[in-house]
Amino acid sequence: YFPETHGITFRIQISVKELLDTDVLLKLIFHLPVNYPSTLPDISVNSDQLTRAQCMDVKDKLLEQAKKHLSEPMVHDLILWVQQHLKYVIKQSATVSSEKTALSKGTSIEDGTWMLLLHLDHMRAKAKYVKTVEKWASDLRLTGRLMFMGKIILILLQGDRSNIKEYLILQKTSKVDVDSSGKKCKEKMISVLCETKVQSQHKRFQTFEVKEYSTLDELQKEFETAGLTTLFSEFVPPLLK
Questions:
Q1: Per DSSP, what are the bridge partners of residue 158?
Q2: In terms of CB atoms within 10 Å, which end of the chain has fewer, N or C?
Q3: What number does CATH give the domain 114-239?
Q4: Which CATH class, in words, describes the domain spanning 8-94?
């Protein structure tokens, strides 16, 4: 309760499953200031099953999400988000604390950046699909390219190994496209061509970009510039057959 500012306060309890096979009961308080949603809500997070640090992590992540929804009603989206992502936030905060104790140097336990190369069979609802991929890449701080060349669609991602794994989960479990009758559907025609640690000869992508190439040469140059010639010759030509 915030007596000094008027507005609305929501108290919400949600139970989130599938965290180490136990239900986590989250007590969320959203205080919506008068000029919400153009001002972010105050959020407080409590749970008997989580440590104080984990509750703080969940709160920070919720506020990060809230910023993305600024000026549009967001409480419902934030609740959905926390239901879907709680386990990752907690897993991440658990690894962060174990990394801090294990390594004071600030190198990650997974040791460096990972890279993922995916091949998609088709995109029926291309504009929406592309937008979704861009959003996931930005949410998970992944860089790389979404590449179109003729009928070939490739997604090349670089980033934290745990974020790459989470990307794959999203890609396989979310309704990203539409089927032939226009109904939303999950991605079934996706193949992971390669998932590997980024080596020193590989260049790091600074951003995530969507690019169209008119020839195979152009596509090959993109890979070469990134020091990924072997990756290209191993995985791309077979797709043309």
A1: 115, 143
A2: C
A3: 3.30.70.100
A4: alpha beta
Q: Which pLDDT tens digit goes with each residue over 137-163? A: 998 999 999 999 988 999 999 998 889
Claim: this prediction has a pTM higher than 0.90: no
